[in-house]
Design brief:
The structure is a single chain. By secondary structure, the chain is α+β, with helices and mostly antiparallel strands. Helices cover 25% and strands 34% of the residues. A 4-stranded antiparallel beta sheet has the order 1-2-3-4. The chain is flat.
Length: 120
C-alpha cells in the first residue's frame, strides 16, 4: 500500500493506512505504516513479521507491533540512531560464507544486517 493507493481525506476519516513501506530482512519482514486517526492525526506502526513452520508443515507468522506517536518521534529517532551507531562501531558485520546462510549470525548472537537504516 502506498499513498497514491488512498484518497488521503477519506483515509483520515476512517482511521486507515495513509502510507506504507516494507523491508524484507531474511526470515523477517518489517512493515512501516503511517495511519490516520479519526481526529485527523497521524501515527506510525512498526510491525515485525517472522515466518515459522508449524509442526504440521503449515506456515505461520509471529507478529510484534509498536505504535509510535508523533510526540515521541524525535526521541525515538535519536535513540534508534544512537543504538544503530553503537552496534556498527562495536560489532562488525559478519560476511556470508555461502548460499543459504542469510541468517548465519543470528543463532550465535553476531550482528548481521542487510538493511540500510539511513534509507528509512
Amino acid at each position: 500500500m502506498y499513498s497514491e493507493d488512498f484518497d488521503d481525506a477519506n483515509a483520515q476519516e476512517r482511521g486507515d493506512d495513509v502510507y506504507s513501506r516494507q523491508v524484507r530482512a531474511g526470515k523477517r519482514t518489517y512493515f512501516f505504516d503511517v495511519k490516520a486517526t479519526r481526529g485527523n492525526d497521524y501515527y506510525l506502526t512498526i510491525t515485525e513479521s517472522k515466518r515459522r513452520i508449524e509442526k504440521d508443515g503449515r506456515f505461520a507468522y509471529d507478529k510484534h507491533k509498536i505504535f509510535l506517536y508523533k510526540e515521541d518521534f524525535e526521541k525515538f529517532a535519536d535513540t534508534f540512531k544512537e543504538m544503530v551507531d553503537y552496534i556498527k562501531a562495536n560489532c562488525p558485520v559478519q560476511e556470508q560464507t555461502g548460499p543459504g546462510n542469510e541468517n548465519a549470525g543470528e543463532e550465535s548472537g553476531a550482528y548481521k544486517s542487510d538493511i540500510s537504516f539511513d534509507e528509512l
